[in-house]
Amino acid sequence: MPQVTDAPDEAGHGELPPFAELVLDLTERIPPGRVMTYGDIAEYLGQGGPRQVGRVMALYGGAVPWWRVVRADGRLLPGHEHRALGHYGDEGTPLRELADPPRVDLRRARWDGRQPEPPVPTGGPGSGGIMCADGNDGAGS
Known about the structure:
This protein is mainly alpha-helical.
């Protein structure tokens, strides 16, 4: 069974392999409530594959938000389901309602690696008005 640890490396020397650093850095950038699959991370980085990403997460992933990295079918990491569900609840991560066991709803939760566009201030200095990049004020009107 895969284990999520925060061990520095297999030899205990404290240095991470370059690929592991890339994987962990990207994992830390996944926004709360969003996820990437092991394959998504490998594709985004342009190196390795899902198994290599999984190996990095198993060896070093305990110090990063590991629950934001999931299998391609949205299933949770075996042995860590309860901890992951707690994090998903706290972050509002969409889950598939009727799945048993629970799965992340990848259609709604998957992150493509791009940062969301920040709101654009409107109404001049000091007005406090916020306008989204699409021109709406976010009030739903």
